[in-house]
Q: What sequence folds into this?
């Protein structure tokens, strides 16, 4: 009986906590909910203190300051990004989001980063150019721009057809471990992310000099949501003018990749 | 990120994992009884509907059910789902586990010989008295090992909440692992799950002993 009471008591208190957690939600200023992949450094990730940060998130923070919005950082599963955006649980996708190939699927902000899709291999693999990838297994993130590029007739599908296999991954951490363990021979990914990963893992890996393509990053809004898009655009331009944008790019080592026009 | 911060972060995720765990049990254990009674009802329609409900929930992946519960309200009815993420997880887990519990309850009830109902009837017990005073205490004892099994599975299944990007232990672990480019957090999370389950099997074993009155 005593035990039963204790269990009941425990359950009730958990219930009370839960109602506290979900019950309150004050709405003062407009909240601006940014959807991002929290496993995508340096654009969006968890920092050493356990806070979400990154080039894109700090930029979003500054945009919110200008517009008087309250920023809400909502990590999303990258596979579910369209569901999240269309159902309105986030206001935009802002996380190293490639415009090329998705032009008509979203309302796009102005492009702000010049990106390339590149191939990462082990330094001692003997692979030095794209044609060496023939008959190799190549890893790529599911629903990523790299995957789209490699499956697009007008993109690099011809190259991808020479691969033994295109292996899809949920996140780059797993992909790198598989590369290290030789279960894949190469990974196709964004150059900024590749640089971050290689910095964290030492000189065991290299980026091939030959890039798969050149493309640009923007912020993606739901089709028709031009109002928010325009406000973000003008705020971005303001940040470029007052130098804040370049300061952040410097901080995250992306200076030579930015393309935002003032 | 140093080791202590990593532990702190993973522990904060653990709290959310525990929250999902208890809320799911809180709703699914009673709901399971309702479904079990529906399933065992003499009313063909009622038992048909609950039977279908159970077969769908047991026959489709929990991950898919979570996605349907979270996005469904918007894509079917255009309702806003801004504050729906956490409730959706609880609803998804609860109905799924209720379906499993219902079948466990049913197995327990079927295990009681018909003779006991007849004896209780002759002794003048009403149907409700028979159930609560004679059947239920035995059923609880019979089903406890099977329920323990499900409860332990639930601890591990909470990690599926990462599909809806809820910051429970597994989601946070994955994020730390990718920001720090290491697999270490997974080892810590594994240990946390294991300790949690050790605790649960300990409690359930004590409960079983207490109910072992023969």
A:
């Amino acid at each position: 009986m005593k035990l039963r009471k204790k269990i009941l008591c425990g359950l009730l208190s958990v219930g009370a906590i839960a109602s506290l957690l979900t019950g309150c939600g004050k709405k003062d200023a407009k909240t601006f909910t940014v959807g991002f992949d929290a496993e995508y450094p340096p654009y969006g990730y968890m920092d050493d203190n356990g806070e979400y940060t990154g080039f894109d998130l700090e930029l979003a923070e500054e945009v919110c300051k200008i517009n008087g919005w309250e920023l809400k950082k909502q990590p999303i599963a990258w596979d579910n990004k369209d569901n999240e955006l269309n159902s309105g649980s986030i206001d935009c996708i802002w996380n190293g989001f490639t415009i090329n190939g998705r032009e008509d699927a979203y309302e796009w902000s102005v492009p702000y980063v010049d990106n390339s899709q590149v191939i990462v291999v082990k330094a001692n693999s003997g692979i030095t150019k794209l044609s060496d990838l023939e008959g190799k297994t190549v890893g790529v993130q599911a629903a990523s721009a790299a995957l789209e590029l490699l499956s697009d007739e007008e993109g690099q599908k011809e190259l991808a057809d020479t691969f033994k296999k295109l292996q899809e991954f949920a996140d780059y951490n797993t992909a790198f471990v598989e590369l290290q363990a030789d279960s894949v021979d190469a990974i196709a990914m964004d150059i900024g992310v590749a640089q971050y990963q290689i910095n964290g893992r030492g000189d065991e890996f290299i980026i091939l000099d030959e890039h798969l393509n050149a493309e640009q990053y923007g912020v993606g809004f739901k089709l028709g949501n031009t109002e928010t898009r325009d406000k973000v655009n003008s705020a971005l331009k303001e940040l470029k003018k007052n130098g804040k944008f370049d300061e952040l790019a410097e901080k995250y080592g992306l200076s030579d990749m930015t393309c935002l026009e003032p | 990120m140093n080791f202590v911060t990593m532990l702190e972060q993973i522990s904060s995720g653990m709290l959310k994992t525990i929250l999902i765990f208890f809320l799911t049990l809180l709703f699914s254990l009673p709901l399971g009884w309702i479904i079990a009674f529906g399933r065992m009802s003499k009313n063909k329609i009622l038992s048909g509907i609950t039977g279908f409900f159970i077969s769908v929930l047991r026959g489709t992946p929990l991950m898919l059910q979570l996605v349907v519960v979270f996005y469904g309200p918007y894509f079917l009815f255009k309702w806003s789902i801004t504050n729906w993420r956490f409730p959706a997880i609880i609803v998804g887990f609860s109905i799924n586990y209720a379906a499993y519990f219902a079948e466990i309850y049913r197995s327990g009830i079927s295990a009681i010989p018909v003779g006991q109902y007849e004896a209780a009837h002759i002794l003048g017990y009403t149907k409700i008295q028979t159930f609560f005073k004679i059947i239920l205490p035995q059923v609880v004892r019979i089903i406890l090992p099977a329920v323990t099994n499900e409860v332990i599975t639930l601890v591990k299944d909470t990690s599926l909440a990462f599909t809806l990007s809820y910051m429970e232990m597994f989601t946070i672990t994955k994020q730390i692992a990718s920001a720090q480019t290491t697999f270490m957090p997974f080892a810590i999370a594994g240990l946390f799950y294991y300790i949690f389950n050790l605790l649960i099997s300990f409690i359930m074993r004590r409960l079983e002993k207490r109910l072992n009155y023969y």
In short: The helical segments of chain B are 3-40, 44-59, 62-77, 85-110, 114-122, 127-157, 169-180, 184-211.
